[in-house]
Design a protein that fits this description.
By secondary structure, the protein is an alpha/beta fold. The protein has helices at residues 5-13, 29-35, 68-75, 85-88, 138-145, and strands spanning 19-22, 43-51, 54-61, 64-66, 80-82, 110-114, 122-126, 132-137, 148-150, 153-155. The protein has a single domain (5-155), classed as YbaK/aminoacyl-tRNA synthetase-associated domain (YbaK protein, Alpha-Beta Complex), CATH 3.90.960.10. It contains five helices and ten strands. It is globular, with a radius of gyration of 14 Å.
């Protein structure tokens, strides 16, 4: 299955160099990391968040969970929770549910990224399907998406 055209056209139009990888289907971030033979610390996981009735993307390593209290402080929001699939399924018509890339600007969403990614030269994330990932330099990702960042990822181990 090819990367959804909306995603590849977006990256190509912005002249972003990226590598596309195919793997056996995986339906969790840790499963994707395993299928790609990489550490869960290297794979970016998108968690959809509802903060003050506004949808946004929180991006943490696959080996982490989003600490809603910490993210709420960063957002200055007392009303924060994980979004339901029903609330965001129509925003990503080109993607399989749960395999959205952290390209918030493509979908008109703010992106918050955990600070741990700043120490990595590259970033790997789902490419819109449960069997593909995209890898690019972190500098290119940052320039393209311009995510806000803070410390809100907590290790699940």
């Amino acid at each position: 299955m090819p990367i959804p055209r909306l995603i590849s056209e977006f990256l190509d139009a912005k002249q972003i160099w990226y590598q596309h990888c195919t793997h056996s289907p995986a339906y969790t971030a840790q499963g994707t990391a395993h299928a790609q033979h990489i550490s869960g610390k290297e794979l970016a996981k998108v968690v959809m968040i509802m903060a003050d009735k506004k949808l946004l993307m929180a991006v943490v390593p696959a080996s982490c969970r989003v600490d809603l209290t910490r993210l709420g402080v960063l957002l200055n929001s007392d009303n924060i929770r994980a979004a339901s699939e029903e609330e965001f399924k129509d925003i990503f018509p080109d993607c399989e549910l749960g395999a959205m890339p952290p390209l918030g600007n493509l979908y008109h969403l703010d992106v918050w990224m955990d600070d741990t990614f700043h120490s990595h030269p590259g970033i790997i994330f789902n490419a819109g399907t449960h069997a593909e990932t995209i890898q690019m330099s972190f500098a290119d990702f940052q320039r393209l998406v311009q995510p806000k960042s803070g410390s809100f990822g907590v290790s699940m181990h």
